[in-house]
Amino acid sequence: RGPAPGSTDHAPRPLPLADTSSAYDLPPPAVHGCWYPSADPSGRRLAFVCDRAGVPQLWTAAVDGAEVRLLDADPHPVVEVAWSPDGRWIAYTTAPGGGELTRVLCVRPDGSDRHLLAGGEPGT
């Protein structure tokens, strides 16, 4: 407590300090971003790009944020994503090595049947 209102007593007062004998450093918060959302034709699911693992990858989730799933863990950054009109496929582009040359792939919404549509596999 400080001095009473109008008091001229400005003497130092003891300040209680927290016990820091068992203090420890906290790890930095996990920070990631998600972008380029694309809704399936029914409007119930989203495909999007997210860098949770440090590189932009293809993910899906229900529009309420549930059922989050990684669809492609390839180390090449995913650039953009779009659903097929019938909702049976998700097409997406990657930039191998982060370069300007891209390739187009597609995958089923459950992560199966991934295949290359255009562009080359890195190193070929």
TrEMBL record:
SUPFAM superfamilies: Tricorn protease N-terminal domain (SSF69304). Residues 1-24 are annotated as: Disordered. It holds the Pfam family PD40. This is S9 family peptidase.
